[in-house]
Amino acid sequence: MATFNKYQNGVEVLVTTANASTDVFKFALTNTAPNAATHTQLADITQIAAGNGYVSGGPAVAVTGSETGGTYTLSQDATVTITASGGSVGPFRYVVFYDDTVAGDPLFSYFDYGSSITLADTETFDIGAASTLFTVA
Q1: Fewer CB within 10 Å, N or C, the chain?
Q2: Please, what is the end-to-end C-alpha distance for the chain in angstroms?
Q3: Could you give the CA distance from residue 19 to residue 58 in angstroms, rounded to a whole number?
Q4: Full-prediction pTM beyond 0.70?
Q5: pLDDT tens track for 23-49
């Protein structure tokens, strides 16, 4: 089970700049520990190398925003699958959620899988649906 972590900067971006209805959100993979206090944009993390089924910047994810009792939540609409093709993907330990539309590609949250993962050719990695990707209270 992955551990959810929120970037501190993400709150400001969500309430001032991001648009859950129109922006493109993505998952980037990294094997270097993110720093939620100091990292603010995609360029601050070290992504794994592109190739064999992983594209630089990662796959897009469809999201839905909702508000209940003063808490706004961005949730994932469907499972995103990464498939290794023609070789391995990784290693990676962290899946970083960010906004690819807003300038600078601001970071919102990341999931820590606890240990590094490498996908062998034809193996898949699912980033599960119905996950909370970010909350603001």
Answers
A1: N
A2: 24
A3: 19
A4: yes
A5: 999 999 999 999 999 999 999 999 999
